[in-house]
Amino acid sequence: MASFSWVNDGDAPLKIKAFLAQKGVSHRMFSIIKRGGGAVELNGQQVRTVDEVKPGERVEITLPPEESNEVVAMSDLPLDVLYEDENWLLVNKPAGVTSVPGKADRETTMVNRVKGYLAANGSTDLVPHVVTRLDRFTSGVALLAKHRFAHGLLDKQLQTHAVDKRYYAVVSGNLPDDHGIIEGPIGRVDGDFIRREVREDGRPSTTEYWVEHRFDNMTLVRVRLHTGRTHQIRVHFSHIGHPLVGDEIYGGPMDQGISRQALHAYALTFYDPFAQQDRKTTAPLPEDMVKLLDGYQIKV
């Protein structure tokens, strides 16, 4: 059984449900605890969530481990681990690797590799939970939770877009403004399962960028996502007439020496509710983008 606990370090008693809500335990997580055979205990005794936790008392949640299933295969292919503790795993996903199993690949994706890595390291929870996923041909930092409780604690951060994701992108042409915000609702292209576009009936989407360097026929930008729509960065820059270099699907030039969209998730910051502090993880620019920029030095 995995256990997680907090002490009421305030000066007043609180209902256990309210106390745990302050720690990030959502209504959905309470349901998972109830359905999954978990328990809520106060000072070692099982209690109801309507009971009170007094100052100095400890509330503990226990959950049984999630056992492996055959639906997701294990892979022993390489995994570039950037940060790891008992709750989180942050990896540097290479371009060309799909985030989660699907029709195109069920055995060598990032999740397959993470599951194999966890098994090889003796983990009892063998169901990786993807918190942030990247397009197949986008490289960089991806966050996974090692167990469902950790994933559940990030529910609110994900809903409010509080997980701070930063990217480097190389777009075609020269952007005129050093800083800009692209706003445009994004939805599926009619009759197309893959492509998205800015359209009136799409979901609200906001992308912020800063120009890092202008080259002869392309611009290196730092990007922050304020929403997390599928293909958002690619769609937004294509929409303003500056598609990403190497992005064939959205009209980017394919003659610059890179065969995939020039997009790299270089930094991710989130609030760790277990450690009660921000965690920032970075990933260096991959070789194909370094070559594209002809050795231009950037910070991550």
CATH C-level name of the largest domain: Alpha Beta
Let me know the largest β-sheet. 10 strands, mixed
| Low-confidence sequence ranges | none
Based on the structure given, which CATH architecture of the largest domain is correct? 2-Layer Sandwich
Number of helical elements: 7
Question: What separation lies between the terminal Cα atoms?
Answer: 38 Å
Structural class: alpha+beta
* Tally of DSSP β-strands: 18
Q: Residue-averaged pLDDT, rounded?
A: 92
Note the run of SSEs as H and E.
EEHHEEEEEEHEEHHEEEEEEHEEH
**Number of spatially distinct domains:** 3
- CATH superfamily (homologous) name of the largest domain: Pseudouridine synthase
* Strand coverage percent: 25-35%
- Spatial shape: elongated
C-alpha-based Rg, rounded: 22 Å
Helix content: 10-25%
* CATH topology annotation of the largest domain: Pseudouridine synthase
Structure description:
A hairpin with a 4-residue loop joins strand 17 (263-272) and strand 18. This protein has helices at 16-22, 27-35, 110-120, 148-153, 155-159, 232-239, 287-292, and strands at 2-7, 14-15, 39-42, 45-46, 52-53, 58-63, 81-84, 88-93, 129-130, 139-145, 164-172, 179-183, 186-188, 196-198, 206-214, 218-225, 263-272, 277-282. It has three domains: 2-63, Structural Genomics Hypothetical 15.5 Kd Protein In mrcA-pckA Intergenic Region, Chain A; 65-153, 2-Layer Sandwich (Pseudouridine synthase), CATH 3.30.2350.10; 164-265, Pseudouridine synthase (2-Layer Sandwich), CATH 3.30.2350.10. The relative contact order is 0.13. Strands 7, 8, 9, 10, 11, 12, 15, 16, 17 and 18 form a ten-stranded mixed beta sheet that branches. Strands 1-6-3-4 form a four-stranded antiparallel beta sheet, with no helix packed on it. Strands 2-5 form a two-stranded antiparallel ribbon. The chain is built from seven helices and 18 strands. The longest helix is centred in the middle third of the chain and has 11 residues, at 110-120. The model has no long low-confidence stretch (mean pLDDT 92). The chain is an alpha+beta fold and 300 residues long.
